[in-house]
Every structure is written in structure tokens, then in C-alpha cells.
Amino acid sequence: MFLEQSEYDSYSKLLDDPYETKLLSTSNTTIMTYSLAGTRELSSQMIETNKFGLPKCIKERNECQQIGIVGAGAAGLYSGILLAQAGHTVRIYEASNRAGGRILTYRDPTNPSIYMSELGAMRLPLDTHSYLNTLIRERYKLNITPFANSNDNAYAYVNGIFGTMKELRENPVIFKFNMTKNEQGKTSQTLWLTAFQPILQTLEQGGWLAVKNQWDSYSIDSYLKSVNMSRDTINYINILRNYESGTYCSILEVFRAVLIYASGSKFYGIDGGNDLLIQAMITECQSIDSDRCSIMYSMPIIEVQLNDSNKVQLRTKNETIDIVDTLIVATTAPAANLIKFEKRIDFVDKYRALRQIHYMCSTKVLLDFNVSWWYTQENINGGQSLTDLHIHSIYYPYIRNNQTNGGTIIAAYNLGTSSLVWQSLFESDIIELVLQQLIRLHRSSSNMRDYFQGGKVQHWCGDPYAHGAFARFIPFQETELFHQLQTPVSKIHFIGEHTTLVHGWVEGAIISAVHGALSVTRQKETIFDVVIIGGNLIGLSTAIFLSLKQPNLRIVILEKNTINDYNNQLHKYSQEHFRQIFDKEYLVQLANMSFTLWQQLEQISNLSSESILNTNDGFLFLRNPNMTQSTNEDNWASMKRICENLDMNCEYLNNTQLRIRYPMFTLIREYEGIFHDQSGYINITTLMMSLLRLIDQNSNITIREHEELLSLQLLQDHVKLITNRGILHSSHKVILIPDSNVKNISRLFNFDLNMRVLKLPIYYFRRLANFVRLPNGIVMNDRNEQENFSSFSIVSTLDYIIIKPTFIQNVSNFLIDSIYTETVLNWVSHHLNTIVNVSDYYINNRTYLVRSLPDNRFVLDYVPQTNKRILIQVGENEITFTPVLADILSDMVLFDGMNTSSKYTKYLEYFSFPQSHQAITEGIISSKGNQWLLSPSLFLWCSTLILIINCLNFYFKTM
Predict the structure, then answer these.
(1) pLDDT of 478 higher than 70
(2) Residue 524 Cα to chain centre, angstroms
């Protein structure tokens, strides 16, 4: 993999020309958007593989394959790693005795630990090539070093004129280029960017497809003529950009390079040699469990045959026969063209594309010296010199810490037809001619022969394994060949930089590897009966209840985070309230059903009673009877009436009884309470462990983490889901439980639930020595201050209690911390001053999530216009209803239309998909001031302060 151009300056140095600055700035958005060739080379699915890999195959379902890969270059190695880590068994066949392909680092033959130079890929634009950047810096933790593309002090010798590179770039006229008056006085960069304005405008107006349709027929030479560039200026540009031997190539190849350079990307190499990337891949491959990733060296594949059993048969040069389920060909196109693919009739179009794609030749000549004469005698440190002599481009190593004990120069770098000249000479003659021309260019260093130690020549078109340097399309090939180069033939896939539009770069090889690996996994696009989007407690419980009712259902749970991390966000602590007292009768009835389901869950988890649902200390509601409660979350009178109507055995406590039973509270007014002994708290930690254990024991339930829904298609007999990591199908139902991802789901279906997901701070107050155990689940309401708090009767050992505020004062803005703190301090000083030190507190940098819908606690319904194949459940994170909501969802999956077969049918009217303001197709942001469009009820909710005291993390005395 090589760079397409021999020299470009860093664009950060080019903005001294006002017109040039305008050219760059007006196209900045386009340049940044299309810096990877203006195509969707890196989809969200592909990006995620760098961090999380591919979805795991399931051996018990015969999803794991035996995969063969031809070629151990960067593409072959990385695709093999991804597939092996996903559970497949991979064997990589390498024709040569080394891995790496066209990443070829030259090391001291007598001491390979000593880095000398690069015979292959030498520079990496990591600022633009984001996947490779993450791979090198984060996955493999490799150190990088800047690659100097230019140096003002380096030499230019063109048309018989000596000068500096700065002079060549800024004043080409002195090098006898006869430019027109309009071209004179402009730098090479200004001339270059001006020439590309027509394509940039097409890109901005119509995207990459429009660019391809309009400009794919142009070569470099014909395009520059079409924009009225003079012949001498074209000659000048071609020498400067190393296009002189390839002016017949497509202008689109050059334009993609312009986008990379104009994006401001800097260039790097890997400290110690670019082959360290290959070595890191080899190590990772060999470390995968059960030898699922292996590399076979000196094992060229000469024949590939698709047999009748839908397997792929491979024949090696030494007549070894192997059978695999799937094959990936990760060679160059010329190398792949040498393989005998059978039956040939199936490969007619593939062979044509492999034959016709244009490859560039490249020659590099390295010369080694024991004195750094270019630094000591020429004052050149890094960068490039340029000439129209045979050597064309010279790259100097960068001298660190004034070390002058020599190094290796890339003394000649040639592309295209100029490379072919070198291939006609013996290596000794090449080295001598290069040395002569190097002396001619560096007039102060005629003594460099005294320091010369030897040389190395690499012809990539003469390489017996690569057969070429890199792909570079000629006109029409992007339109006519690109798709066919990428397309698999049955179970045989083709990857490599030539199958992308990122030709000549290591990134092209890597993203082709990702694309190929994803393509292999899509061959067996997994089909599930039920797909659950969202791995919260309701999603996990729904999968379990479904499996209990219909054990043969194949169920998958997709969670864009990790299951534990996301549920920890929703439930920061290991306890959450369970209560059966509400101000609406249907909620009380559902809570009572949940009570039974919680107990059943304990039984099927083989847990003792009260392990998940603990009601030992009951639940207490507390309020000031002299204050009206019309805007509070729960209406006191309604709760009391429902308690009596449903015979719930609620206990009513007057102020005296409260003071006696709960002396820890400062009750400055007359308060009254409702106590319920069949309410309490849920142990979240035990619950999570139980759910995950039950799922782990069930082979029909799969959890796929770090997988996010991107889009879906409602097909005739199933739903096709496209995620950031692949494609899967639901043959029966899809359940959406989006939680914090509700906005993305809303956009997908063009509705909006006006759901607010807030991240709020957590306060820690030191308890006093006389602190005693609080009752479980207290809620306090005060009309004037709009305050609510709740607590847990859990024993712990730390010295702090935790207060969690939830309120929004201004619905168009989130509150700043000072307002939170002022309100919390005021509340604590009034109500908890006898049990905590009000002045001794701190704010945790963690936050917790609170969700709210404007009218309903929950939405649980079929998504409109999906033929009852997609359900949605969203709402408050009220743990009380988790099992009953999961049970309702499972019935809705099994009983289409929720007929009388389900005991929950009568409750669905309360959870129906919202109309009016909750389904706002135009979005939820107004055009004035970006204010939230909220319903009156949500406004009232936002005006209410809810203070939650979590007594998990501090010490309680026994009452």
C-alpha cells in the first residue's frame, strides 16, 4: 500500500494566500465529510468492529464456520482476526515466507531489530484514516512518529535548474515553466485547488454519486486541459505530484487524495517500523483461543473450486487439498487473477474485473550511509527533494537528538512507467546510477561515497507475490469495475485495497477486511423469532417470560452498551422502591400482579423468599395534610380511597404516631402517613444476577452487546434489522425498549414521545453519630416547596447518605449546579438536620438517569403502521412494574391483538400509543429559541422537586 502522491505540503502552511484560504474554507464541510473518498467506505457497522468485533457465532446452532483466507497481508490478517474472535475457525494461507504483503519494513540484515526504512507503505494519514488510527494507537498501543512530507531546505532540480523545494512550489517560473499570465504568481497549491473547484462544487451540490457520474470519464491530463490549465503548468503539476508517468489515470483518484490532504491530515509512521502493525496482528491472531486463527506460510493456493455440497475446496501448490465453508481472497487483483477458480463460468465477470483493473508499478531504492551527510553537510532533516532525473523523489530520515551516525535514505521513489525503466536494469547498476544522481543533486556532498554502506531495491510490479504496487483506476473503471471487484461469488469473498476506493493506503486494506468479514457473517444472516431492542431489566425479563411460555422461541436481546453498564446508569444503587400504593386503581392492580411475579421470579431463580423483593420494613407515605397536593406525582386522597376500596390493609398514622415510630425526622408541621406492609424495595444486584443467570442457562436466548439498531425494513413475512454490527431478521415480533435511545427510535418511525431523559448530580452528606435506621420508601410532599424525597431501609457501612434531586426550573434550559446545590441544602437543613451534618457534603462526578413521559407513566403498544409486528415499551424507570410490563409484552408477542386470552387486555387502554402532542412528527424543537414543546402536565412535573435520599451507602442502626 503506497501513497498516491510523492509530495504535498501540510495544508496548515498553505493559508498565506487569501484566495487559497477562501478555497479551503468554503469547501471545508465537504472536505471533512468526504475525506475518505466521498463514499460510505466506513459505515457505523464497520467502525464498531474496531472496538467490539463482530457478533459472536453460536456453535450449538451451527453458525460457526471453517474459513480459509488467501493472503496474510494487512487485509487477510485483520479479517481473520475479526472472524476468529467471533468464534469461527480461520486458516490463513500465505504464499511467501512472511506476513505483511506490501507493508515491508527494511531492517538491518545482520540485526533485524534495527529499523532502517520502508520498502512498502511508509506514511499514514492517521488524522483522516480514523479506523487505522484507532487500530494502531488504541487496539495495539503502538507508538507513532511524524512523517515529514516536505522540507523547504530540500532541493529541486528540474529542467536543468537548481533550487529549493520552497522555490519550486512558490515560483515555478524560475524553473522554466512557461505559464500563462493568469497562472503566474500563484503557488502550486493555489493552482491545484483552483483546478478542482468544478469537482468540489459537484460534490457539495450532488454528493459523490454526482461526482462519479460527471467526472469518471476524465483522466488527469484531460481534466486539467478541460479547466484551461496550460500545458507547461500541467507538466509542472505532474512533476511536483509524481503523476508524470500516470497522467492517463482517473482524475477521481487524484481528487480523493486532494480531499485527504485538504482535510489537514498529518502523516505518521509507526515508531520502529510499520511492520510492527503486522507483528501485532500476528500476535493477536495466534493468541485467540483453541487455535482458531492460524497462518500457513509458503502455502500458495493455485486452485479454488465450489463443490456441490456448498463447500469450497482449495488446492495448494504442493497438491494439498483443504475444504472450508467460506473463502476470503485477500491478495492483490493480479495475484487473484492467477488462481484457477472453478467452475470458470461462475467467475467470468470476476475474472474480467481482475484482468482489467489498472495497477501502478512502483520502485524504491534505499541507500545506507554510516554518516548523516544530508544533515551535517546539506542542512536537510526529513522531508523530500524532487528532480526530473530518473530518481525523481528522495526522502530523508529525520535526525533525532543530533545523532549523525548515518541512516537509510529512500534515494529513489518512482511510480508508473518510470518504475519500469528501473526494472530493466540489474540491481547493482540501479544502485550505482542512483548514487551518481544523488551526488549530482547534493553538490555539497560529493564525498557521500565515502559513507556509502550498501543499497536495496524493491520493484513491486516485479514482486512474485504482489505483482503490482497498488490499484489506481483509469477513466470509467470506477463506474464499470468497482462493484464487481467487491462482489462475492457464492461463498468466495474478495478483499484488499483494490476492492475499496481508498487505493494505495493501508486504510483501504483494513476497511476491506472489515467489509469482507461482515459480508461473511451476513451469509448466514441470523433469523430470530423475537428481537428485543434494549437490554434493561424489562428487556431481560421479557425474554425470560417469553421463553417460559414458549420454550422453542429463538430470542435475541440487542443492547448498544453493555448490559451491566447501562442498568447501572438507570439504577445507580443496588436497591429501588417497590410500592403498591398509587393514585390510580389500575396501577395498584398491576403493582399487585407484579408482587406475585417478583415472588415467582425468586422461585425460578432458586432464591429464598425476600431475596429480590424485600417487604420486611414495608413502605411509608408521609405528607402535610394542610397543604393541597394537586400538582404532586401522587394524589393523597386518591391513594387513601384506593387503599380502602381494594382492601389493601393500609395503616394510617397521625402526627403523634409518626413521631413515636419515626423520631429521626424533623416534623415542624402536622404530618400524617400511610403505611403498607406489602411494599418495600427490590434488590437490583440480586435481580440482575438472577436474570443473567437464567438467560445464560437458556440456549434459545442470545444477548448481543454493543449493537445498535440503525434501520429496519418491514418485509412480507419478516422484519429485517440493520445494526451497527450486521443484519438480522425477526420472523415474528420486534420489541423496542429504547430508554435513553428513544429519540433515535422516534426518528426511525417518525414520531416523538416527548420523553425527557435527564442526567442529574448526586449529593453525599455525612451522617451524625445519632443516626438511626430510616423507614423504607418515604415520600414527602410539600405544596410550597414542591419537595419529594425517598429512602431505603438498607444496612450498610459507609458514613454518608445520598440525596438525588430531580427538577427543572426553566424548561428551556437545564439547571446549573449552583441552583441544584442551593435547593438541596435548603431541603436538607429543614428536614434532616438531626441526622446529617448539613455543611459536610460533596458532589459526586457521577450522574444518574431519570426518564419522564408527559401524560402516561408508560407507553406499551404496537407501533402504528407496522401490522402489529413491532411493539414499543417506554416510560419511567419505575422498578415496581418491571415484571408485569415484561409479562404484558410477552402476551402481546404470543397473542396477536391481545384478545381475551390475556388477563392484561383490559389494561392496554392505559398504555396505548399516544396521540396529540406525544406524536409530533415535525420534531420537538420549536423555531424560536430552541425551546422544548412540553405539555402542561410535563411542565408541572418539571416544576416539582423530587429529592431522593438513598440510604444504601451508609451505616444504619437497627430500630
Answers:
(1) yes
(2) 23
- Burial of residue 584 (CB within 10 Å: 0-12, 13-18, 19+) is middle
CA distance 30 to 912: 44
Q: How far apart are CA 32 and CA 43, in angstroms?
A: 16
Grid coordinates belonging to 270: 509507526
CB contact burial 834-867 (16+ within 10 A = b; e otherwise): ebbeeeebeeeeeebbbbbbbbbbbbbbbbeebe
The answer to whether residue 938 scores a pLDDT higher than 80 is no
Lowest mean pLDDT among 590-604, 896-910, 939-953: 939-953
Residue 521: pLDDT over 80: yes
542 neighbors 536 (Cβ within 8 angstroms): no
* Angstrom distances, CA of residue 295 to CA of 279, 284, 487, 825: 12, 12, 25, 65
| Grid cell in block for residue 207 | 454528493
CA angle in degrees (0–180, nearest 5) for 280-405-394: 70
Complete DSSP assignment for 392-448: BEEEPPPP-TT--S-EEEEEEEEETHHHHHHHTS-HHHHHHHHHHHHHHH-TT-GGG
d(CA 165, CA 155) in angstroms, rounded, equals 5
Q: Which residues pair with 722 in a beta bridge?
A: 711, 727
CA–CA separation, 639 and 637 (whole Å): 5
- Residue 698, SS3 per DSSP: coil
**Residue pair 945/788 in contact by the 8 Å Cβ criterion:** yes
Distance of CA 344 to the CA centre of its chain: 39
> Domains in the chain and their CATH numbers?
5-36+153-269 (1.10.405.10), 44-104+275-357+477-523 (3.50.50.60), 526-569+686-754+856-910 (3.50.50.60), 619-677+756-851 (3.30.9.10)
Q: Are strands 726-736 and 526-533 parallel, antiparallel or unpaired?
A: parallel
Compute the distance between CA of residue 851 and CA of residue 846 in angstroms, rounded to an integer: 17
d(CA 528, CA 720): 10
Q: Is the peptide bond before 804 cis (omega within 30 degrees of 0)?
A: no
CA angle 554, 559, 563 (to 5 degrees): 100
**pTM for the predicted model, two decimal places:** 0.66
Tell me whether residue 623 is exposed, middle or buried, using C-beta atoms within 10 angstroms of its C-beta: 0 to 12, 13 to 18, 19 or more.
Answer: buried
